[in-house]
Specification:
The protein has 357 residues and is of the alpha+beta class. The chain is built from nine helices and 13 strands.
């Protein structure tokens, strides 16, 4: 605000301007009258247009709730140049976006067509320092330059500029990792689709690495497992990405307690294997309630019913825990039939469901 103490004078006489001794004076050059200023009919039409936009905003909010309630998170839609993405995500984004847009558009239309169109002038001083202040600032700056010996030692000045010019380069070069993939993987998206599980790989206990026999798992028991060749993979890759994606839990329940399976022939005698990585934001989970067959994520309370295809029964997770198809080999050890048939871990916007064995 201005610190000018000039007394404000009343605005020029105009029915649309509040006559107030503290009002700012009207500008000498006013814009031409609008159609809505000259015609009451046009003004009412503009008011109806604004009201329609506000009402449509409410309609889109209602459609948002319909999409959120009745659309399946697994529905997909094909978007040009973007590919196949979640249909519910598109519906929620469009409905909420239109609801907000229509409120903004209605408000702008209201301001342009119906609100007062009188331009006023706010008295204020020039935004400029006095010559004395300007001179004082220059003197302080020059003193700082002299004290830093910036001019006296040009070698420091040149090497500093050189170093500062190179400092941003590591950040630019590191952007390469956004598209860095292992050999044979076409793009980063494909890295999310598969794990290192392959047909015939034995399930081994986490930490100890001992193979798991089917007879060793009691009804109601849970075992944390990894693929047999995990250690070799870690030595090759030098990171824990493969371990994180391949981690699973193996549980056993009475066969007649199983309501449904994602892969009907992917379990063996009541023994089922699921990804250990929560489909919400990727937390590793193994809190299992054997009486209800529910798996609980302690981070955000997503709950999955392992007896019913590991479907979500509570919490923010958007889809079930992927099932790893398993069986037993000739020696009675649990082995994988294939990789997961869908991506593991948190859902992402290009997820399309099954990816094949």
């Amino acid at each position: 605000m201005s610190d000018d103490t000039t007394t404000r004078v009343p605005a020029k006489t105009d029915d649309s301007v509040v006559k107030n001794p503290y009002s700012w004076p009207a500008n000498e050059h006013q814009p031409p009258p609008r159609t809505t200023d000259l015609s009451e009919r046009a003004a009412k039409r503009a008011a109806r247009q604004v009201a329609t936009m506000f009402l449509l905003s409410g309609v889109f909010v209602a459609l948002f709730f319909v999409a959120f309630t009745y659309m399946s998170p697994t529905d997909t839609v094909e978007i040009p140049y973007l590919g196949e993405i979640g249909g519910q995500h598109v519906a929620l984004g469009l409905t909420f976006g239109m609801a907000v847009f229509l409120i903004g558009a209605g408000t702008v239309h209201w301001a342009k067509k119906l609100m007062s169109n009188v331009e006023v002038v706010q008295p204020r001083h020039d935004f400029k320092s006095t010559p004395e202040d300007t001179q004082g600032a220059l003197e302080v700056f020059e003193e700082g330059v002299e004290a830093s010996t910036w001019k006296k030692h040009p070698v420091i000045r040149r090497t500093l500029l050189f170093a500062m010019a190179l400092v941003p380069l590591p950040f630019i070069i590191s952007l390469r990792d956004l598209w860095l993939t292992p050999p044979g993987v076409p793009n980063p998206d494909a890295m999310l689709q598969y794990t290192i599980w392959t047909k015939g790989q034995r399930l081994v206990r986490d930490i100890t690495g001992e193979p798991v026999r089917a007879e060793e798992i009691p009804v109601g028991g849970l075992v944390n497992c990894n693929p047999e060749d995990l250690e070799a993979v870690e030595e090759t890759e030098g990171n824990l990405n493969a371990r994180a994606k391949a981690a699973i839990i193996v549980i056993r329940m009475e066969p007649d307690e199983i309501q449904s399976l994602q892969i009907p022939d992917g379990a063996w005698n009541g023994i089922i294997a699921f990804s250990k990585i929560c489909t919400h934001v990727g937390c590793p989970i193994s809190l299992y309630q054997q009486r209800t067959h529910e798996l609980l994520c302690p981070c955000h309370q997503s709950t999955f019913d392992l007896s019913d295809s590991a479907n979500v029964v509570f919490g923010p997770a958007g889809r079930h825990m992927p099932q790893l198809p398993i069986t037993v080999d000739d020696e009675g050890y649990l082995i994988a039939q294939s990789d997961f048939l869908e991506p593991v871990g948190p859902s992402f916007w290009t997820i399309t469901g099954e990816v094949g064995p």
